[in-house]
Amino acid sequence: MPESPPRVGLFVTCLVDLFRPSVGFAAVKLLEDVGCTVEVPEAQTCCGQPAHNSGDRADARAIALNVIAAFRGFDYVVVPSGSCGGMIVKHYPELFDTGSAGHEEALHLARRTHELTSFLTRVMKVDKVEARFPARATYHDSCSGLRELGIREEPRKLLASVEGVSLREMTDADVCCGFGGTFCVKYPGISDKMLEKKLRHIEATGADTLIAGDMGCLMNMAGKLKRVGSAIKVRHVAEVLAGDYATPPIAEAE
Amino acid sequence: MSAREAILGRVRARIPHGPEGARRGAVERRIAEHPRNLIPERGQGDLEHRIRVFTEMMLAVGGTVEVVDDINDVPHHAAVYLRDGNLPARLRRGADPVLAKLPWHRGGALEVTEGPAADEDRASISRAFAGIAESGTIVLISGADNPTTLNFLPEAHIVLLESSALFASYEEAWTRLRALMGEGNMPRTVNMISGPSRTGDIEQTIVRPAHGPKNMHVIIVR
Amino acid sequence: MTEMSTTAFKDNVAKALADDQLQFAMTETGPRFIAKRTKAREALPEFDQLRDQARGIKDHVLDHLDIYLERYEAKVKETGGHVHWAETPDEARAAVLEICRKANAKMVTKGKSMISEEIDLNRHLEENGITPVETDLGEYIIQLRNERPSHIIAPAVHLTRGQVEADFRRVHTHLDPGRDLSEIPSLVEEARGVLRRKYLTADVGITGANFLIAETGSSIIVTNEGNGDLTQTLPKVHIVLASIEKLVPTLEDATTILRVLARSATGQEFSNYTTFSTGGRRPGDPDGPAEYHVILLDNGRANVLGTEFQDMLRCIRCGACLNHCPVYNAVGGHAYGWVYPGPIGSVVTPALVGIEKARHLPNASTFCGRCEEVCPMRIPIPKMLRHWREKEFERHLQPTTMRWGLGLWAWVAKRPKLYRRATALAARVLANQAHGKGRLKKAPLASGWTEFRDFPAPQGKTFHRLWKERRS
Q1: CATH classification of B44-221 is 3.40.50.10420, yes or no?
Q2: CA quadruple A163, A165, A169, A172: dihedral sign
Q3: Which CATH architecture has domain A7-122?
Q4: How far is CA B112 from the centre of its chain?
Q5: Interface confidence (ipTM) of the complex
Q6: C449 and A224 in contact by Cβ < 8 A?
Q7: CA distance A130 to chain C (A)
Q8: Which site from A35, B50, B170, C242 is most exposed, i.e. has the minimal number of CB atoms within 10 Å?
Q9: Chains with 3 or more CB pairs closer than 8 angstroms to B?
C-alpha cells in the first residue's frame, strides 16, 4: 500500500447514474475497502460513446474534452463498465489528431483509466474480496471489456472469492448479447435473436443469477429474462463483490 | 485513355508518394530477394520427423501413406493398393523418367499406360516434385512428363514421393523450384494437394470425394 | 453490376428472422466453423505472428500497388498469358464475352469467384447465348435456385439437405424418383456425376483468384473440391477473374498468407487444392488450356486507397468475420442485399456501391469486435464501420428521429448542470411509472426495446443526487 491513499475519480457512467446508483455505491465501497480515496466529479455526464458510435465525432470530442477536464488531477479514474472504460481508454485518443494537445490529454487520461474489476486486480493487486452473496451464478463477458480491455479472468477471480458464490460457465459467454447501444432499438429483431441464443446458454447452466460488468448488457438481458418470465436474477458484478443483496436485482420489484 | 492507364493513374494518385526510384527499388528488391517470412517449426527436423509429421497430417485429411525402402517395390505396392481398393489393375502415368524406369512387371497383372488422364481412367500415379511435412501436402508440377489431369480425373491418385524431396516447409520447395526453372519462372501449373477431394458445402458436413479423387495414396521412398 | 438491394435491409431482416429453415441452418452450422478455426489456431503456435506478417505483406503491396500491377502484367505477358484491365463491371463482362466468342463457346464451367458475382457475369453470359455452369457444389446449388451466395466461402450455408434434395429432384430430370437422396453423400455423388460431364465438354473455364503473384505472373486458386482445377484444366481457354488488390510480391509472401487463409476460413491446416497457374499450355504439355486470360477489375477499389478505408483491401475473403458475427448468424448472408455479406461486406459494399445505397449496413453491428479479433489480416472492421457511420452523419443519411434524438442527448450531455436536472427528472418519472415492479412493459420512445423486452426501471434517484445527499 502506498504512503498516501490513491486518489480515485469515479466515472459513474450514465446508465449507473440514471438507472442503478447501487452499482455506483458498490464500486465506491470496493474502492474504499482497498484503501482508495474516492471522489465523484460533478461535471461528468456520459462518456460520449453514443455520439461516437453514431458517427458524430464533433459531439464525441466535445464530451470527451469535458470528461478529460473533469478528471484532471486524479491518480486513477475507475469505471464500473468495460464499455465506457473502453471508450475512454481506446477511443478518446482516436478522437484527436496525433500530436495535438487534446490527443496528449486523452492519452494521459487513458493511461490512468481502468474498469473496476481490472483496477482492483491489476492495479491494487487484490485477488479476493470480503463479501457474502448467495448465488449459483454465470458470468457474461461484455464485448468491450473483453475485447477492448482484455478483461476476462479478473471478474471471475474476484467472484470466486465471494462467500456463497459458485460460478458455472455458459457456452459462448464471450458472444454479444445483442445490446450494442442504439443497435438494440434500431434493429430490435436481430437484437432479439441474439438475445434468444444468449438466454438459452444462460438457462442451460442452471444458474439462478446472471452477472456481468456492464449496465447496457445487463438491462438488455434482464429485460428479456423478465419478459419471458424467467426467475433468473440479474446483477452487476460490483454489487455481488460488495455483497449488496439487499438491493433488488435488475428489473425486479422492491 | 485505356482502362489500364485509368486504373494505374488512379492508384498512383492515391497512394503515398515517395521518390519513384525508391518505390521501384523496394519492389524490385523484394521480388529479387524473395525473403522468407516466419516458417512454423512443426515440420522442421530430420527425415524421420518429417515422415512422421507428413503422415500424421495426410492421414488427418483422409489420405493414406506408406513408406518403402526400395523404389523398385513401388509397382508392387501400387498393385496391392489398387487390389485392396477393388480397383482394376490399371494405372495411368505421365512420361516422367523415374516412373518410366520402374519395374512395372513387379506389379503382377498391373497394366500401366502413359499419357494424360481421361474420364474412364480410374487410377493414376504421379511423381511428386516435393512433399511438405508441415501440412501433409504434395507438390506436383505440370510439364511434358506430368499431365495435370492425372491429379484430378481418376478416383484414386497414387503419388510417389522420394524422401529427398520431403521438405519441412513450402519454402524449401520454392527454392528447389527456382533451381529447376530459374528465378521468377513457374511451370504452367503447380498443384499443392493435401488429401483427397472433399466438400463441406451441404450443412458443413465433410463428404469425400467432391469432384476430384476419392483416394490419395502417397508412397514415400526412404 | 449486381443490383444493390440493401436499402431493403429491414425487410430482408424480417424475412430472414421468420425463415425457419434459414434459422435452423444458421444455428446448426455457424458454431461448427468457429470450433474448427479455434482448433486450427491452437495447433499452430506461430499463428498470430503469421497474421502480423500477412498484414505487413499486404500493406506493403497496397503502398506500391501501381508498380506491382505493372510488374505482374509484364510477367503474365512474358509467359504467354493475356491481361485485360477493367475499370467497371461492364468492361469486365465485355472482356469475358469477347474471349468466349472468339473461342466459339456454348458452355462455360466456372470455379468459385466472388468477382463473378460482383459483375453479375452469369446473367450476361446467358443473355448472350452462353450457358454458365457453376461447379463448386455450393455455387451449383444456388445457381439451381437462382440465388446469390449467402456466404463468401460457403455459398449454400443457408440451406438444409432437404432443400438441396428438392432442388436436385426438380432440375435433374434423369433422377429415378425411387433413388434415396436423403443423405448428404448421395447428394454430393449426384452433383459429381452431373458436373463431371460438364467439365469434359465445356469450351471455356472461368475461375477466380485468391492471389496474383507479381514475381511469377501466377494466379492462385484455393479449393477443396477440385472443381476449380477441373474447370481450368480441361477446356481450351482459362479465364481468371481477379480484382487489383489480389497482388502479392512473391511465392514466399503468398505462402505466408496461405498459412492463415485456410485456418481462418474452414479451420483446415491447408486447403485440399492450392493451385498456381502461370500462362497457357507449354510446348510438350500433354494437357491444360491453350489460352490463359486474366481480367483485372478495379470497380472502385483504387478509390479506397489512401483513405481511412484502405485496410479493407487487405481482405483475403476467408469468411472468418462472417462465421464469428452474431448479426450474420442471426440473419444469414442474403439480408445484406449484395455480393459481400457479413462484417467485411458491410465495410466493402458501401465503398463499391456507395454509402447512400448501403446506409443500413454499417449500422447493423453491435461493435462486439469479434470480427476484428479473428481477422487473419487484422482489418479493424468495427473502426471502419464507424467511419462509414461518420460519412452517413456528415451526409445526413441517418433517420431523422435517431439523428434528432441523439443530437438532443448530446446537447444536454455537454451541459452537466442541465444534464443533472434532466436525468433526475427522468429517473423519478420512470421509477414512478414502474409502480415498484422494477420494470416497465412500455416506455416512452423505446418501442424498439419494449417490443421484445421489459424495460428495467430506474431505482428512483440518480447516483449523483444520492452521492450529494451522502456527502452533506
Answers
A1: yes
A2: negative
A3: 3-Layer(aba) Sandwich (3.40)
A4: 21
A5: 0.98
A6: no
A7: 23
A8: A35
A9: C
